[in-house]
Design goal:
Alpha/beta knot, homodimer, 6-stranded parallel β-sheet
Chain lengths: ~190, ~190
């Protein structure tokens, strides 16, 4: 991989549950498919599904294989093209390292969340930075009730939350990834 | 309902399957939830789940009730707020009529699809029209391999397809709805 790159990662650990406890959420089939299709549409280099649970890692690999090599690859080649982007990673750090190896340099880590935070960058600002081509970016999306404070603190950049028409900000992670990707990379 | 309004409809019939046959697709639980959350975020007035299959209509009602009145309403009030927008409609015409009754006038029908078509309006143009407040709009989203030609022909407006970074245009309908809503109504 040469030049400017961006990847997305869906974080199943460490995230909060409804009560603020740090948990590992379950990987869902549709998160794999929908976000892979979005990642392919907007030309991400990898889509990391991050979970420390080995059974879940195996499940992701099985689903991806079905569409890459199994019956699914013939049935729907477009889906294969999307799922080819999926990599399983046991931790955020492993995803970061994999991307660093692929790119030959450390990516900047960008976190997203539904709550506004001081010092956030806007999508326009980040799109400009990405277009400048000086860095590679790994964009993190949380499951459950969002990534832990530690993940936010350790990140290089925090991206502004998506605001709809009012105060309701409870999009699915699949919707949030789609909107962020379009704001950053969509053609109008 | 007074003033300018917009609603979304997810069409399960009439749509094409992979081979160009007109079929009825199955309603999925996640289409109900994800699109309801997106509709609430961007302040749609209703989200019509359109299917002629009575068993599927009953399933939608059961799911919505669970989150409106059942255990789900207490567990997650934010989800209730989203699912309150869901109406089941046996046909596109029934959805249109329901909206006409609610608004006191016929809505303009807007279709969306992945293929480019001559005479399409852009999201910016449609957003301007909506902001002008002269009409109400019912935005149609297809399942399966997209809505039939008859639906496109009968519509008042065709909205431009979402373009990503390349030629791949196989977003999930959940992603497409999210991106269209953000392009039309999102604050930046």
């Amino acid at each position: 991989m040469t030049g400017n790159s961006f990847c997305v990662a869906l974080i199943h650990y460490p995230v909060y549950d409804k009560n603020g406890q740090v948990v590992t959420t379950a990987v869902t089939n549709l998160d794999i498919h929908d976000i892979a299709r979005t990642a392919r549409t907007f030309d991400a280099d990898r889509y990391y599904v991050v979970t420390p649970v080995t059974d879940q890692q195996a499940m992701v690999s099985r689903i991806v294989s079905h569409w890459q090599d199994g019956w699914g690859a013939t049935y729907n080649p477009k889906r294969k093209a999307a799922l080819d982007l999926v990599s399983v990673a046991p931790s955020l750090d492993a995803a970061r390292q994999d991307m660093a190896v692929r790119c030959g340099r450390e990516p900047k880590i960008v976190v997203t969340g539904a709550a506004g935070r001081p010092g956030s960058v806007t999508c326009v600002e980040l799109a400009d930075r990405i277009a400048a081509g000086d860095d590679d970016y790994l964009l993190l999306f949380g499951t459950g009730w969002g990534m832990t404070e530690e993940v936010f603190s350790a990140a290089d950049l925090v991206l502004e939350p998506i605001r709809g028409s009012g105060d309701y900000n409870h999009l699915s992670v699949r919707s949030a990834v789609s909107i962020y990707m379009d704001r950053l990379f969509g053609r109008r």
